[in-house]
Structures are given as C-alpha cells and as structure tokens.
Amino acid sequence: MASDYAVQIEYLTHTYFTKTEEVTAIRSLSLTVQPGEFVVLVGPSGCGKSTILSLIAGLITPASGRIQLFGDPVNGPSPRIAYMLQKDGLLAWRTVAQNMILGLELRRQATAAAIADTHRLLDEMGLSHVAHHYPHQLSGGMRQRVALVRTLAVRPDLLLLDEPFSALDIQNKIHLEHLLTNVLKEQQKTAILVTHDLEEAIAIGDRVLVIGGRPGQIKYTLPIPADIRALPPLEARAHPSFRSLFSELWREVNRIEKLA
Amino acid sequence: MKSWLERGAASPHHALYLRRLRIRQTWVWVLRILIFIAFVAVWEGAARVGWIDPFLFSSPSLIWSQAVQLATAGELFHHIGLTSLETAAGFILGTVGGISLATCIWASPFLSRVLDPYLVILNSMPKVALGPLFIVTLGANGASILAMAVAITIIITTLVIYTRFQSVDESYLHLARSFGATRSQIFRKIIFPACIPDMIAALKVNVGLAWVGVIVGEFLVSKAGLGYLIIYGFQVFNLNLVMLSLVVVAIIATVMYQLIAWLEARLLRHRQRG
C-alpha cells in the first residue's frame, strides 16, 4: 500500500568510511513528513542534519533503513525533489536567465513553456530587470533569490533547504523567508529545512526537530502552534508566545549539545 | 592639454582625480619609451666608441642593415612566417591535446590513479632531451620541430587542467547531482566551462614554452626559421644575424602573448574576478 506521507523514513542508519575509521553519522532515525508540511531540522554542527537531506535526495545510499518519497522508495536523485544550499551555486559564465533554467536543462525539461514559467517566477521575485545580468553584478540577497527561482523552476514537490539563508543579512533573510513561505503555501509544497538559526526555525517551520548526538538521532520535537504558523515570518517573530518557544528550543539545543 | 586630461569628468573633484591618474599613466609611458631609446643609444654609442666589440655584440645599426638586407632578399619573412606557424601550431596542439588528455583522465578516476606516476615522470623529463628520438622517428624535418613544441607543452597542460577539473567547487557538483545530472552533463555544463579561464591561462604559458620547443627543434634539424638563423649566424660568426633573430623572436613572442591576452579579456569579460 502506498503511504500518504510526503517523506517516510524508517530506521535509517548511515555510515561512511575513511582510511582510518568508520563513522556512523545517523543511527536508526525515523521520521515522517506530511504533504505540505514544513519541517525544520536544527542541532549542533556535525550531527548529521545535512546527511539526512543528502539521503532523502538520493545523493548517498544509506547503510540500512528505508526512505520513501510520496510512497516510492528512493534510489538515486528523484525528479520530485529540488535542493537549495547556503552557497547560491550560480554559474559565473551564465546570465541570471541561463542560471535559473540549469535544473530544467539537466533534467532535459527546458521547453519554451517551462522557460516562460520560470520567467514569471523571476518576475514574482522582483528580479525580471536583472534577467540578463551576470551573477557578479548582483547582491547576495538577489543571488539567493535567483537560486530559489532555479530551485522552484523544476516544479519540485519537496524542497530540501540546507541553510539557504544563513549567509544573508537579517533584512534579506526575512525577505527571502517571506518569498519562500508564500510560494510553499500557494503551491502546497513540502519542505525540509536545515538551519542554525533558531528564530528562523520557529518563524517559518510547522515542526522543529532537534537532531543531536553522535550518531545523530531526533532528540526533541517542537510543534509550532497554529497561530504562529499562520503568520508571515516577520510577524511570527513579534508574536507574544514566540519568545517562550525560542527559550524552550534554545534550552533543548544547548542541553543536547552538552550531552554530545 | 587640459581638456584631454580632464575629459569625462563629472565634477571638479573628479577632474582632479582623472588628471592625477592620467598624468601618472603618461609618465609611465614616457619612461618606458625613454628606457628603450636609452638602451638602443647606449648600445650603439658603446659599439662606435669601442667600449664593446661590435663583432661580438653587434649594434642596433648593424642589426638594422642586416634586417634590411635579409628583407630585400625576401628571406626574412619566410623565416619569420615558418617559425611563427610552427610555434602557433605547437602551442595550440599542445593545449588542445593537454585538455583532451585531462578530459580522458577525468572520465576515469581509476585510470588517473594508474597513470599518475607516469605523468609525473614525463613532466619531470627535460623534453628537449627527447630531440634525437623525435628525429629518428619523425625525420629531420618540421614534424620533429612540432613534436618538440607539443612535447614541451602537452604534459604540463594535462596536469594543470586535470587539477583544475578536480578543484571545481564541490557545491556546484552537489547541486548538479541533486538535479539528477549525469557525469557527462556535469562535465559539459559545469566542470569544463568553469575551467575555461584556466585553459586560457595554460594557453598563455604554452606560448612561451612552444617557443622553446620550436627554437630548440630548429637548432637541431631545420634548414629555415629563426632558430636556424640563430644557429647558422653563430656557425658563420655573423653575430648581427643572431642578434637580429633574437630581436625578431622577442617581438613576435610578445605579439602572440598579447593576442592571447586580448582573447582572454574578450572571452572572460563577463566573469567574476577572483
């Protein structure tokens, strides 16, 4: 029977090898994500958060355990997924318009209609005036917005976001959080975000998971109340109960970090 | 005078800035030309007064009359053309060959591991020592000269470009893989274009190296070309001819280098610096 989950992870263990040792990054991790849900992973550096994303994306193969995407087992990169990283990864020799269709090109989906759609997306991000600029002519915030367009251009059902906003200043960060959450809500997309920024986690997530320990496991789950989830990222930060959630998350992350 | 120094100024302050900038640039050029004139004048003077022996060290006027004599005989341009052609063919073949080899090695990481020590040995070899080998296999002709120029450029190009292929930012590759890119797509869309600046840099270095190969090649086998003129002039003790050839080599090598620099500026004008 096909599952109704967007992502279903069961007893996932991942081990990697070096010349001198064998490191278990994640042990027996289980996690389910509902379609349309926004799950945030936080936790100390090196706890395996990014590894979880790479496993879901099919970029690496787990030692054991099962991952299903929309009911199908993961073996290799799925066309239903798009990835966004802290580094924008814009290619210096391509214009914005050429960069944003990189994913479409690699998947051989760069049809005229798909490209026109992507231009509309670029316009929604307020960037159509720089379509023929090269990346070095853009600010950091603009570059990351182009990266977001490139991510959305392939029409993914699931977005994997690996600290995409952590290199940005606070203004750009909140602006991008806003654009992202709008698009996700409008298009009913599912997302998993890895971040170090606990405020960001609460402001844009539906559920925050604290990953910790070595090997990494889910140590704590913080569901975000519906009234905060309904607010845009900036307004969420001003909500009366935001501070107490932040304190709770802060306390848990610190406790887990000390244990490790 | 004023109008030229301050042309395009947006404000009196900007005018002052432009003025300083342009005056300094003018001085740079004036001094460059003065150094050249002084060098030629001192050389010529020293030869005439007898400080240096013009029979051994020639003089600008003797070089000039030698040039006029060779040019009127129609020989000079034949030699220049031949050597330029060999050099251009040498560095283009060496660079293209090196990039192709690097691509083959990149295509198979296992092969690259296996071949690594051989590449290092070949790279450490002084390539001109292979001269006799080329002559016995290819004959005492242009093919040996070209082989020398290619031998001197191709291995180092392979090593440098392969290293650049490998050092392309991992985040690009991660991104491409997440879009399901195949290895050949990653190469064509990301690694190869990312390394174009390095390929042009290799081309620049190879111009200089190819000159070494061609001149040495011509020393060994040729009956024409600038390397031949140098060795012939030396054998008949016509040092004017040797000096003339050296001057011509310097000029043409510089022109070739500038052409590549121009090509580089054109091809890379959109890229981020640094």
UniProtKB/TrEMBL annotation, chain A:
Name of protein: NitT/TauT family transport system ATP-binding protein
ABC transporter domain ranges (all copies): 7-238
Domain of life: Bacteria
InterPro entries: AAA+_ATPase (IPR003593), ABC_transporter-like_ATP-bd (IPR003439), ABC_transporter-like_CS (IPR017871), ABC_transporter_ATP-bind (IPR050166), P-loop_NTPase (IPR027417)
Keyword annotations of the record: ATP-binding, Nucleotide-binding, Transport
GO molecular function, one term: ATP binding
Signal peptide boundaries: none
UniProtKB/TrEMBL annotation, chain B:
Similarity comment: Belongs to the binding-protein-dependent transport system permease family.
Membrane topology qualifier: Multi-pass membrane protein
InterPro entries assigned to the protein according to its UniProt record, in alphabetical order: MetI-like, MetI-like_sf
Any Pfam family: BPD_transp_1
Signal peptide: none
Name of the protein in its database record: NitT/TauT family transport system permease protein
Provenance organism: Laceyella sediminis
UniProt keywords, alphabetically: Cell membrane, Membrane, Transmembrane, Transmembrane helix, Transport
The ABC transmembrane type-1 domain, residue ranges: 76-260
Subcellular localization(s) per the UniProt record: Cell membrane
Record bears the keyword ATP-binding: no
Sequence intervals crossing the membrane: 26-43, 89-109, 129-162, 209-235, 241-263
